[in-house]
Every structure is written in C-alpha cells, then in structure tokens.
Amino acid sequence: MRCREGLLILGVSGERSSMSGAEAFAVPFRGAGWDVLICAFHADHLHLDTIFCMVSQNEAIACVDLLDDDFMQALAARGISVLPMPASLASSLGCNILALGRGHILADAADAVVTSTLTTLEPRPPSGCLAICRLWRRHPLSDPAAAAGRRLNQRERG
User: Which pTM value belongs to this model?
Assistant: First the structure.
C-alpha cells in the first residue's frame, strides 16, 4: 500500500539487508523524484515493519525506543507524526499492521496496546473500516512444533 505518494521508507538491518543494497535500490526512485528514507535497525527485529509502520499519509506507529533519532527527526520533518508504542511490542510483531487506505487497517486483535491506539485515531476511520483481526496464534519462528513440522514436510518432498 502506498500510504504517501512519492515517499519510500526502507529498512536496513545489516544482516538480511545492507546499506549499500538499500542505496542501490533507492537510485531509480530518487531518479523519479521520490523522497527516500533509509532506517537502520537492529537485526533482532527481522523487518522494519515489526517496529515501524505507516498508518496513514501523516501518521505511523513505532517502537520509538528502537529507532534511530535521525530517522525520527526525518519523519517529523516530513510532517509524519508517530504514535509511540512500547519496545516490548517488537517481539510480538505488534507494529506489523497493514494500512489498506481510506481508514482501513488490519491489526492483530490480541494486541490491546496497538488496537486501542488505532481505535482512537482522529479523525476516526469511517464506521466498520478498522478491522481488528486475530491474525496468528503464535509467531511461526518461535513455535518449535511448527518448525519441526516444516522440516519434516521439506524432507518428505525430497
């Protein structure tokens, strides 16, 4: 979803991505006049959207204690206000929401901190547009039984 036309936000963990790779990826976007922000974050957080996610054109949710001050200042300079979330949400992928546009947002119903914040946004999304869903029971990477099942299925397939 494009929350804001002309703005690309890339995350770089240094493990699954690199600053040079992000810079190379950004070249055609910058060449087309896009504003590109690159946010470095700790590899423990897997993807940027586990600690930062746009809600609308001018709002985001973020585990602010886990983000670089320069990135936070760059967001503010672009008129993006950040709804702060506790750093403890990172391990449960709490900030990993999906903004579909026009006030439609998918979020995990089990995360009371995020859902209570999203339901108090002003202006409020049109009636029925905030879908709070139970998206997963357990993070698949932290579930040993599921991981063992995946390994078994992979061996059976050859």
Answer: 0.72
